Trk system potassium uptake protein TrkA
Amino acid sequence: MRVAIAGAGAVGRSIAGELLENGHEVLLIDKAPTAISVERVPQAEWLLADACEITSLDEAALQRCNVVIAATGDDKVNLVISLLAKTEYGVPRVVARVNNPKNEWLFNESWGVDVAVSTPRLMSALVEEAVSVGDLVRLLRFSHGDANLVELTLPEESALAGTQVGDVEWPQDTSLVTIIRGTRVLTPTREDSLEAGDELLFVAAQAREEQLEDLLSVRREDAKG
């Protein structure tokens, strides 16, 4: 997979290193000469250019990329890069960094963004996830289809504890994608049973999140009544 990363700061270089370790081709783009540190990520391709300029993106052969990551520290720049990548070059997957949570509402398909990653929101979500049981925590927002990656730790008193996945009437527009049980990561089947303490990861439409939380958190005595 070929990935272009706009923004060769600490965030961009860190992402590049991870992708290279996993066998992907990576191109780092930055307009600041001081950011071009080939020795820090020598396996990557480097391009000194303004990723907001069509000529620069032509030089980067963006049409050959499977993914573009807009990882600069400027939200306006990330939006422009995302829009150009999607509309001018037809890049299948565009991921954009959100620096200011107040701007998060802009990072959607109208600007070519498939996945918006807000570091402040993600950090707060991870804190919530670590201390919350029975509460739905939004980890990541996908622009297309207005869907989110959400997590809930099944509480001891949940009526669904001990229930097989296939016997649960899940809300519309939700999909259980992973069960994390201790150190195990399970791909759920209809025969798998839910257990108290399971971390459940869903892709769910935002409009269904409250319904999903109510379903998972309902107490046994409430269900009986």
In short: The chain has a mean pLDDT of 87.
